[in-house]
Design a protein that fits this description.
The structure holds 3 protein chains of 3 kinds.
Chain A lengths: L3 H18 L10 H20 L5 H20 L3 H21 L3 H25 L8 H4 L4 H21 L18 H10 L2 H23 L15
Helix pairs in contact in A: 1-2, 1-7, 2-3, 3-4, 4-5
Chain B lengths: L1 H21 L3 H24 L9 H31 L14
Helix pairs in contact in B: 1-2, 2-3
Chain C lengths: L10 H5 L3 H15 L9 H21 L32 H4 L13 E10 L11 E8 L1 H24 L11 H20 L3 H19 L6 H32 L12 H7 L5 H18 L8 H4 L5 H10 L4 H8 L1 H5 L2 H23 L4 H21 L3 H29 L16 H15 L5 H16 L1 H26 L18 H22 L1 E2 L11 E2 L3 H6 L17 H19 L7 H6 L1 H7 L4 H46 L7 H22 L12 H10 L5
Antiparallel strand pairs in C: 1-2, 3-4
The chains are: A mainly alpha, B mainly alpha, C mainly alpha.
């Protein structure tokens, strides 16, 4: 089983690496950050290898790696557009993971909604709010990266230790015959019988969101008096 | 097979959390919440697919579907608000909004 | 023994004595408040004091109508001896001759009567049908009271009339604070009369404190001057030291007497105290006597608490005359005389009084020799004369002491008021170095001052001669060495008195610039009271202190002996431990010689008012010591004032830093906490989010520690994971 030390090393190195990779650089990150992150990634792979069993190992590990790298790059990139693009990469990897778990419909829905709707909206807004010039100071400087990274990785270490601690006597993986479990027919049948109230509520929620978004977007806001640009001190 | 998915999901979630707390661009902050959603969805589906007792169920996927709905709604509203905020202050800096200060 | 029915006028009328000056003072207060013309503001007080004076004289005469016995030729056979106390039962109770004398162990019989105005403070648990124990407002009338009131009221009246002229400028306009002065004077006369008339110790203490208060108010009358303010404070504080002992004495007295008193007898009334005092043991009496003596030393400015009196000369001259010569400072002597039964029972206390008096007399006389301020010379002279009285009290001659109080009041008031007249003419300059030869300028004042000085010096046939002689005789009776010391001090008295007189009035005419163009004599309103006082100085002795008896060997000049009418008047009312022989006529010739010799010596050295000081040349460093008042003030400053001030500074610092600091600290805690926690409220949303994340992390860590971790990774225990998984999904579809 996974020894605690490997986990600890993973978390620590990953944390430091992430911290160094944060925009607004501490000292001279230079080569250090990617190196550390690479080591952390390798450790992650090792951890996953130890944890997995079954024929889908390689895909799982690859998708996990892609997702992790994409997430890291997303949160450390200085330009918002690139962050959005890396997010799409993460979405794709999540989709892949869902397919591996026989959730076909959900995978498709995820990709369509995230990639096709949410991300498009994000990119639109980023373009709209774009100001001339390069990355803004608030993009170039992370806000208390040390504390944030530390707390976050504290959570990760706790979660990871939970996860790896109780993994020995897990039930065997489900038989492969369940491949179609997440098909449209199955999901749809369940939705319309057991979770029909939830579907209705979700519809109402979407309506409310739509109305709210329209109302907000129509509001005319003027810049506060005497201010053209507001610079962070 | 549950555990690696959980690990991946946790990693995605934590990375999203770190990004949410650290970045100063309002849009990126919201984007990080979406990243957190990804992690959660993976976790949920994993729990549904590899339950601790009994056969695999679709409960996780259903919940994840609803989560997706909520995420979409939230993204729409959030972006509308961000646009409005941007129009007020002319900047996307999260530090521009400190009205809740104690001074 | 006197009884209420014995008086011609009703006693209730005499009981109003204190209140006339008080009424006058209150009316002046109203006058001030109504802002009326100040030049008539003296009228209510003058009227009040005048009424009191009339009543005082009437009381003196009234109380003397009966039982005034001639003094005996010899004492043997009419008195019991103090030591044996034998023959007590054989004594006839109606024999007033012996009734007043109470040797130790004998019974005291009340020579006066008490008139109660109202019951003031209830004392207690035992309330019988007869009324219980109270501290009442009551007045005690006996001949000692009468004698004291006579001169207190009349001298007060003279001083108040004098003040009408003194407190005005040369054009006759009232000085600043004219009305305030008279209000305080009225208050003072009320206080003094209350003190004298008081019938119990608490009322005595009340009057005691009130005269101290009025002294403070009047010394500090020119409060714009810092020296006057300081002198007023000094007087009050030094008096307070003595009063502390006095109060303790009253408490001790209560402690001893209260168990003995009957149910209906107020334990602090004079009548009750003196009735039971014979039952107390000598140590108890000594304790009470010594504590009461503290009060007398403070009030009468005796060594070692004499330091306030010379400084008290900062007040106006009438104040010095009345309060610090004639009345307030004599309260100590009066109190010791009044408490004769207590002091008579304690030899140790009597010795203490003698020592205090003897040392004080000599010290004050030497200090007076080396001063330049006329009023200060007179102040030291007052201390010295009061010391004489204390010596007499200690030598068991209380009636001689009271007689000297009587005569001293007249001539000392006269001297102070003459000094005031000089000041009035010289523009408030009273330093002897700055003027001389005033006999050309102020002839009447000169004559009056001469009378006063002669009396003070003890010139034969004047009142001071008789009274001082009695005291010196009593000293000789007690102890020959003491007698010689007192005789020598009498000579010193004559010397320094006439040094002052010659330096002031003789010699070349020199005037200070403040005197103005034409310094003139005082107006009649100031001079007429002085004539009355001079008459008292001249004749009081002869009229009251002399027995006319033709006896070549046993009298002065063949027919005059001391111990006259005054003594027989006071006979019943004063109590002495031993018996006193009359006589002492043999001493009068040496006394006269000493007095005249002192005057002559002063004439030779100071007759022409030399600029250089002959005494300084003669005595050298001694003179410097006397001039510096034996450095008493400096010693007290170093020993008492500085440490107290340091203590006060320490307490202030403790209060400010410690106590206030504690309060500040308690107030600063929330502030500090707020300051520290302010970072959490910076308004940045991501900061709040970070806080939440941090909290989540901590919770998780805590949780994981609290959960049972599996001992080895292989022995998988899914309980923890199960619990968490249960939160996420549903078990069964």
């Amino acid at each position: 089983m996974m020894t605690p030390f490997v986990l600890l090393a993973l978390v620590t190195l990953g944390g430091i690496g992430l911290f160094l990779a944060m925009p607004g650089g501490r000292g001279a990150p230079g080569r250090a950050a990617p190196l550390l992150l690479a080591i952390a990634a390798a450790l992650l792979i090792a951890a996953l290898v130890r944890l997995t069993a079954g024929p889908r190992n390689a895909w799982l590990i690859l998708l996990a790696l892609v997702g992790a790298v994409g997430a890291v790059r997303m949160i450390t990139h200085a330009q918002p557009v690139y962050s959005a693009l890396y997010f799409i990469l993460v979405a794709v990897s999540a989709t892949g993971l869902l397919v591996l778990m026989d959730a076909g419909f959900l995978a498709a829905a995820l990709l369509i909604i995230y990639g096709g709707a949410i991300l498009v909206t994000y990119v639109f807004v980023i373009m709209l709010a774009q100001q001339s010039g390069g990355p803004r100071p608030y993009d170039r400087q992370a806000r208390e990266p040390a504390l944030g990274v530390f707390c976050g990785f504290l959570i990760l270490s706790a979660l990871a230790s939970y996860i790896t601690a109780g993994g020995a006597a897990l039930p065997p993986p489900a038989p492969a015959g369940e491949a179609g479990i997440g098909s449209v027919a199955n999901v749809g049948a369940l939705l319309l019988t057991e979770y029909v109230v939830g579907v209705q509520l979700a519809g109402v929620l979407l309506l409310a969101a739509m109305v709210g978004a329209i109302a907000i977007a129509r509001r005319k806001a003027a810049l506060e008096e005497g201010r053209r640009h507001w610079e962070v001190g | 097979m549950l555990l690696p998915y959980l690990l991946v999901g946790s990693t995605l979630f934590v990375l999203g959390l770190v990004g949410f707390v650290t970045r100063r661009n309002l849009i990126i902050v919201f984007l990080c919440t979406e990243l957190m959603f990804h992690g959660i969805i993976v976790n949920l589906v994993a729990f549904g697919r590899y339950p601790l007792h009994g056969a695999p169920t679709l409960d996780g996927q259903i919940l994840a579907l609803f989560l997706l709905t909520v995420a979409a709604a939230e993204a729409a509203l959030g972006l509308a608000l961000v646009t409005l905020l941007f129009r007020y202050r002319g900047t996307l800096d999260a530090g521009a909004w400190t009205e809740l200060k104690e001074e | 023994m006197l009884a209420e029915a014995d008086t011609a006028l009703p006693v209730a009328l005499y009981a109003t004595l204190p209140f006339w000056p008080l009424l006058g003072a209150v009316l002046v207060g109203v006058w001030i408040a109504a802002r009326r013309d100040p030049s008539r503001a003296h009228l209510p007080v003058v009227f009040g004091v005048a009424v009191s004076a009339v009543l005082g004289v009437a009381l003196f005469v009234d109380l003397g109508q009966r039982h005034v016995d001639p003094p005996p030729a010899t004492l043997a056979g009419h008195f019991e001896s103090a030591e044996t106390g034998a023959g007590r039962q054989a004594r006839e109770p109606a024999d007033t001759f012996t009734a007043g004398r109470a040797p130790v162990g004998g019974a005291w019989q009340n020579p006066g009567f008490t008139h109660t105005l109202y019951d003031w403070i209830s004392l207690g648990a035992t309330q019988s049908l007869e009324g219980g124990q109270w501290i009442s407002v009551n007045f005690y009338f006996d001949r000692l009271t009468g004698a004291m009131l006579l001169f207190v009221t009349v001298v007060s009246l003279m001083v108040v009339i004098y003040s009408i002229g003194y407190m005005r400028d040369h054009h006759g306009h009232p000085a600043r604070g004219y009305e305030r002065f008279f209000a305080f004077m009225g208050l003072f006369v009320f206080s003094m009369i209350t003190l004298v008339l008081a019938g119990n110790f608490v009322l005595l203490y009340l009057g005691w404190e009130l005269v101290g208060l009025c002294s403070y108010l009047l010394i500090g009358f020119y409060y714009q001057k810092p020296s006057a303010r300081d002198a007023a404070k000094k007087a009050f504080i030094v008096n307070r030291i003595g009063d502390f002992g006095f109060a303790l004495g009253i408490f001790a007295l209560y402690m001893f007497i209260a168990p003995l008193a009957q149910n209906y007898e107020n334990p602090l009334d004079y009548a009750v105290v003196f009735k039971y005092v014979a039952q107390l043991s000598e140590p108890q009496l000594t304790l009470v006597a010594l504590l009461l003596l503290c009060g007398a030393i403070g009030k009468s400015a005796q060594f070692p608490l004499h330091v306030w009196l010379p400084d008290a000369m900062e007040g106006p001259s009438p104040v010095s005359a009345l309060i610090h010569a004639a009345t307030m400072v004599t309260a100590g002597v009066y109190m010791v005389a009044r408490c004769g039964p207590i002091f008579a029972g304690s030899d140790a206390a009597l010795e203490a009084i003698v020592w205090v008096g003897a040392i004080g007399a000599v010290l004050a006389a030497t200090m007076a020799m080396a001063q330049y301020d006329v009023k200060r010379i007179l102040a030291y002279s007052t201390i010295s004369q009061l010391a004489f009285m204390f010596v007499a009290l200690g030598c068991s001659a209380p009636d001689s002491a009271v007689f000297h109080v009587f005569t001293h009041a007249w001539f000392k008031a006269l001297l102070f008021l003459c000094a005031g007249s000089v000041m009035h003419a010289m523009g408030d300059v009273i330093d002897l170095r700055r003027f001389s030869g005033l006999r050309h300028v102020l002839p009447q004042t000169q004559k009056l001052m001469l009378i006063g000085c002669l009396t003070l010096a003890g010139f034969p046939l004047l009142s001071g001669f008789w009274s001082k002689d009695e005291i010196v005789h009593a000293a000789f009776e007690h102890n020959t060495a003491l007698g010689l010391i007192m005789l020598a001090t009498a000579g010193l008295t004559a010397y320094y008195t006439f040094r002052m007189y010659f330096l002031c009035f003789h010699g070349p005419k020199r005037l200070p610039p403040e005197a103005g163009e034409h310094p003139h004599e005082a107006p009649p309103v100031m001079l007429r009271p002085l004539y009355v006082l001079a008459a008292g100085s001249l004749f009081a002795g002869v009229l009251l202190g002399v027995t006319l008896k033709f006896s070549i060997g046993g009298s002065f000049l063949g027919f005059m002996s001391p111990h006259g009418f005054f003594h027989s008047y006071l006979h019943d009312s004063t109590v002495a431990a031993g018996e006193h022989a009359g006589g002492g006529a043999w001493l009068m010739y040496p006394s006269a010689l000493v007095a005249v010799g002192g005057i002559w010596l002063a004439w030779t050295r100071y007759g022409d008012a030399p600029q250089a000081e002959p005494d300084r040349a003669t005595f050298g460093p001694l003179w410097t010591l006397w001039n510096a008042k034996y450095y008493f003030d400096e010693i007290y400053d170093a020993v008492c004032v500085r440490p107290l001030r340091a203590l006060g500074d320490f307490c202030f610092a403790t209060d400010r830093n410690g106590v206030d600091g504690l309060v500040w600290f308690v107030a600063a805690l929330p502030r500090g906490a707020g300051f520290l926690l302010r970072f959490m409220q910076r308004g940045a949303l991501q900061g709040y989010a970070l806080g939440m994340v941090a909290g989540l992390a901590l919770l998780l860590l805590l949780w994981s520690w609290m959960d049972e971790r599996p001992a080895a990774p292989d022995s998988a225990d899914l309980s923890g994971l199960q619990g968490h998984a249960a939160l996420v999904g549903r078990h069964a579809p």
